[in-house]
Amino acid sequence: TFDLPIATPENVNAEATSISSISLTWGVVENALSYNVYCGENLIANVTENSYVVNNLNYYTDYCYTVTAVRNETESDKSEEVCAKTFDLPMATPEGLVATPVSTSSIILTWEMVENALSYNIYNGVNKVANVTTNSYEVNNLNYYTDYCFTVTAVRNETETAKSELACAKTFDLPIVT
Q1: What does the buried/exposed string (b/e) look like for 133-171 if buried means 16 or more CB atoms within 10 Å of the residue's CB?
Q2: How many Å apart are CA 94 and CA 126, to the nearest integer?
Q3: Predicted confidence (pLDDT) at residue 178 exceeds the cutoff of 90
C-alpha cells in the first residue's frame, strides 16, 4: 500500500513569549497525522496539533526551528526556517535619583542599582548626557548658578527602561570677589 503524499508545512511562525519560551505555529497540512519540530538538525518534539511551545530556553538567545508533517512512515520536507529571540531579563525603572551640586560647574547624580541592568543612560531633558556602568555620575561643564534636571534609565542589551523621576539641582553661584 502506498501512503498519501504529504505537503511541507507553511506559514511557520516563531514568537518569543518569555525569557525562556518560544511559541511556534504553522498551517495545518492535509493528511498529516503529526508534526516533527526541529531545532537545527535535532528533533525536539512530535506533536499532533499545529503549534508547539518550546520551554526551558536561555534568556536573550536566538533559536531557529523547522517543522515537518508526518503520516505513518512518510515525513515531508522541512519547512522554511524561522527564528526568534527569547526575552531579556526584566529590569525596573531606576529609583532614588538625587542631584547634588558640588561646584559652579558640576552636579553629582546618584541612584539605586537596578537588578539585571548592564548600564545606565543619563538624560538632561531629551538629550542623553552619558552612559555609565555605575550608579553615580558627575555632570561637568555646566553653567554657574543654573538649574538642571536629570533622569536615568536602566539599560540591558537593546532594552531600556522608562525614565526615572526627575531630579533637579542648581549649580553654585560664582564667589563674590571683594
Answers
A1: eebebebeebeeeeebebbbbbbbeebebebbeebebeb
A2: 17
A3: no
